[in-house]
């Protein structure tokens, strides 16, 4: 894998890592986005599946974690439950992720987008080492972006919406990567009430007042404290009509992803370059300190003789 960082004036595909809770519609979204990009926008798309427990992948899959790691065998071998086996499978796959990056580097000029479908176990990216390794190393090779899916059906309640926004916020804070929130299933439930609650604290409180629970009270406190942060994450909505095969909102979604690519170059790359420089400076400083210590020990030995 090359050690050079992406340059804004060179061609590199945009990597879109699709993350969301189980049932939010990640695989359906990836399939629809692939269809839009490949057939409508006429773009060259590469798809990667890193969900080891999925039964069927409904999009053309160029790299599949299931070809490398057998989720059920991991469950048996390590005596794990479903969630533990998924996390362990991702940890095993992360140790070989450099192979994925090498394949991407060889096909860099042939691609416009790289779509990555992920498991519903969002903790993979919130605290697991494998999620950090995958996102960090990916972002060193291509402009990497996050798309976090918000289930419009499940998130009509303010407490559930706030839980989802907290996940999106934590992902952005942890990875430092540009993120887009996408409301899914808007053909079944409108995203407008969710937009209203996100943009207007009073609207959120009015909705939360209908739930006389500790969770609702906590959600209001979280909204007050965190709204200046999560309101800055761009948002859009998509709908997929399975009967008519109509895709709505994907043109706007693609436009916002291109904005995230610009943000990657303007915000993320300077941060990672500074981080690299700090690491190199520390290495030099540590080497100097070790050399000074060695010289001092030599001088002490000479004096003793």
Can you characterise this structure?
By secondary structure, the chain is α/β, with parallel strands linked by helices. It has one domain (14-303): Rossmann fold, CATH 3.40.50. The protein is built from eleven helices and nine strands. The strands form two sheets. The chain has a seven-stranded parallel sheet, sandwiched between helices. It has a two-stranded antiparallel ribbon with strand order 8-9. A hairpin with a 4-residue loop joins strand 8 and strand 9 (246-248). Helix 2 packs across helix 3 (82-94) and helix 7 (158-175) packs across helix 10. It is globular and about 85 Å long. The N and C termini lie far apart (51 Å). 37% of the residues are buried. The chain crosses the membrane at residues 14-37. GO terms for molecular function: GTP binding; GTPase activity. Belongs to the GPN-loop GTPase family. Its EC number is 3.6.5.-. Binds to RNA polymerase II.
